[in-house]
């Protein structure tokens, strides 16, 4: 057994490297730490000792272990920029079950798990296909160029989650802007909390209206649930509204960018529809847009693979490194749509694994397939080096993606 006890400042790396040298690969400094898949590091801002996990198997163990919790106050960050966990736990809204542990987490999450089953998502496919077709038609109607983020990648999942929740799509500008602010790591914790509060307040106004005049939507069901307070219904909806469009939107845009820059893999994707499910899983693994990792706090002393994590220490699972673990995937830094990427950690793992992952998979599978079928000569409209990357955001991707056909 080993621990950080007695380690010197020089002995411990400071933080998790996050500045990228290339568009698609994790930071070289982070990948250099893979030789020790679970290592002690110092956290910002005060040098507190904690842990960084870069290994796939080790990451799964931490995320599945109930001794590592989220229902605590996160006061340290693995980078100079305050981690989103730090800002959110400054003021966790009621019902925001991402930062609750069982049994409260279980009570709240079960209110929505039934909506996101594989069967329910299969039933939703025709509506998602219609939304994707509408966006493609709108792109064609506007000429032969578009910003794929504005005109396709963001509207598709936003429309889907708004319809599922019963949130008016015409209000999207406000909640999309506040969502982006909430996840912008370059902003102050105060600004990010204010943005989260604005979305929560917006949903709090919708809940009593849904109780008075319910519809066939998730927010109406949450509002009518006698086991939930109005604030809890709004908090659950907040998770779904933000997560329901941010991650998928960035995967659609960044995935398109990656395929356009890997023409051999794009050709493989075009070869047949049976490629799409494998392609989605490999793009999720390869790109890992949740690039700042998942944090946990040890609620008691815990030993993982001979390493002693002390009670109260922060642990960061670097998902993008774990998904490039050569012990799990052969040639992990190559994009290979024929790879069996099952078991990746792009959606996390354990009880907090993304509740909407099946919806995201369907949206990406349909979105990519229809986009590349509709525009066989889709290409970048500007040099790739001019594409602004979302390096400062909690969810990685591109701010805009000008394309032509």
Automatic annotation (TrEMBL):
<protein>
    <submittedName>
        <fullName>Cytochrome P450</fullName>
    </submittedName>
</protein>
<dbReference type="InterPro" id="IPR002397">
    <property type="entry name" value="Cyt_P450_B"/>
</dbReference>
<keyword id="KW-0349">Heme</keyword>
<keyword id="KW-0408">Iron</keyword>
<keyword id="KW-0560">Oxidoreductase</keyword>
<dbReference type="Pfam" id="PF00067">
    <property type="entry name" value="p450"/>
</dbReference>
<comment type="similarity">
    <text>Belongs to the cytochrome P450 family.</text>
</comment>
<keyword id="KW-0503">Monooxygenase</keyword>
<dbReference type="InterPro" id="IPR036396">
    <property type="entry name" value="Cyt_P450_sf"/>
</dbReference>
<dbReference type="InterPro" id="IPR017972">
    <property type="entry name" value="Cyt_P450_CS"/>
</dbReference>
<keyword id="KW-0479">Metal-binding</keyword>
<dbReference type="InterPro" id="IPR001128">
    <property type="entry name" value="Cyt_P450"/>
</dbReference>
């Amino acid at each position: 057994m080993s621990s950080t006890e007695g380690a010197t400042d020089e002995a411990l790396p400071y933080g998790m490297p996050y500045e990228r040298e290339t568009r698609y690969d994790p930071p070289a400094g982070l990948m250099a730490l893979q030789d020790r898949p679970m290592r002690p590091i110092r956290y910002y801002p005060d040098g507190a000792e904690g842990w960084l996990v870069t290994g796939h198997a080790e990451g799964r163990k931490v995320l599945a272990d109930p001794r590592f919790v989220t229902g605590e106050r996160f006061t340290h960050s693995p980078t100079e920029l305050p981690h989103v966990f730090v800002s959110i736990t400054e003021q966790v809204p009621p019902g925001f079950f991402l930062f609750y542990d069982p049994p409260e987490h279980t009570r709240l999450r079960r209110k929505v798990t039934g909506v996101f089953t594989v069967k329910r998502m299969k039933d939703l496919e025709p509506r998602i296909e219609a939304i994707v077709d509408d966006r493609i038609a709108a792109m064609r109607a506007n000429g032969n160029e578009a910003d794929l983020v504005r005109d396709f990648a963001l509207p598709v999942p936003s429309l889907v989650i708004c319809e599922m929740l019963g949130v008016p799509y015409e209000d999207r500008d406000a909640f999309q802007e506040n969502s982006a602010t909430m996840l912008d790591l370059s902003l102050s914790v105060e600004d990010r909390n204010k943005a989260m509060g604005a979305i929560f307040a917006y949903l709090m106004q919708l809940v009593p209206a849904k109780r008075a005049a319910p519809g066939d939507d998730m927010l109406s069901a949450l509002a009518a649930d006698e086991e939930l307070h109005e604030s809890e219904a709004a908090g659950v909806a907040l998770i779904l509204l933000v997560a329901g469009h941010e991650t998928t939107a960035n995967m659609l845009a960044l995935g398109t960018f990656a395929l356009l820059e890997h023409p051999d893999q794009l050709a493989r994707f075009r070869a047949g529809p049976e490629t799409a499910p494998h392609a989605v899983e490999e793009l999720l693994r390869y790109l890992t847009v949740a690039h700042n990792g998942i944090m946990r706090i040890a609620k008691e002393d815990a030993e993982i693979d001979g390493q002693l994590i002390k009670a109260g220490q922060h642990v960061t699972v670097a998902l993008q490194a774990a998904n490039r673990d050569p012990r799990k995937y052969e040639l992990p830094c190559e994009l290979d749509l024929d790879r069996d990427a099952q078991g990746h950690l792009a959606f996390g793992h354990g009880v907090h694994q993304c509740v909407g992952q099946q919806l995201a998979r369907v949206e990406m599978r349909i979105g990519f397939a229809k986009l590349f079928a509709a525009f066989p000569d889709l290409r970048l409209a500007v040099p790739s080096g001019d594409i602004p990357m979302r390096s400062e955001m909690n969810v990685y991707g591109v701010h805009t993606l000008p394309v032509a056909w």
